[in-house]
Design a protein that fits this description.
Layout: H1 4-7, H2 16-32, H3 34-37, H4 52-71, H5 79-108, H6 110-124, H7 130-150, H8 166-175
Helix pairs in contact: 2-4, 5-6, 6-7
Protein name: Tripartite tricarboxylate transporter TctB family protein
Keywords: Membrane, Transmembrane, Transmembrane helix
InterPro entries: DUF1468 (IPR009936)
Length: 176
């Protein structure tokens, strides 16, 4: 039976305990790795040390996560918490899509991969009509043109372009 303190808790309950535990564990893990990832430089002011501000940030994460955990009025994970964790897990699908995209661009090229992934993601999100597929292809082309020509972002050509004949290979590497 919920206590009076649990009844007075303001805000949504679901996922709070799991979030706070995860936050504290990640902060502890990162803080334990700080000496191997940063340096202490001799003859440098304390606040100018490369290790100082990451340590302040991670210490703040640990302190705030610990306070969040301490101030929660319950200590058990409920089915509502697990339902919320499953909702968070759905987001990981899009992280995987993005990672596959990032790994495919150096192999197949920016334009072909973008032309494949944008409509595929549109389809996955439920936009399956001809109009939306056409718009997603147009968006893919505009994205490539914007990044490659207008913004001048240097995205390497795909490894597959190396198999094309001379002049065509140069064109594909430079513009696609």
């Amino acid at each position: 039976m919920p206590s009076e303190r649990e009844h007075r808790f303001v805000g949504p309950r679901r996922g709070q305990l799991v979030f706070a535990l995860t936050f504290v564990v990640i902060a502890l893990l990162l803080l334990s790795q700080i000496t191997g990832q940063t340096r202490w430089v001799e003859k440098t002011k304390f606040v100018a040390q490369p290790r100082f501000w990451p340590a302040v940030g991670l210490g703040g994460m640990l302190l705030m996560g610990g306070l969040h955990l301490y101030l929660l009025p319950w200590r058990r994970v409920s089915r509502y918490d697990m339902h919320e964790v499953r909702n968070w897990g759905k987001v990981l699908e899009y992280v995987l899509w993005f990672m596959v995209y990032v790994l495919a661009v150096p192999l197949l090229g920016y334009l072909p991969v973008t032309l494949a992934f944008v409509p595929a993601l549109s389809w996955r999100m439920g936009y399956r009509g001809r109009l939306m597929m056409g718009l997603s292809l147009g968006f893919a082309v505009l994205t490539v043109v914007l990044f490659k020509s207008l913004l001048g972002v240097k995205i390497p050509g795909g490894a597959i372009y190396e198999y094309l004949p001379g002049a065509l290979r140069s064109f594909f590497i430079l513009y696609l």
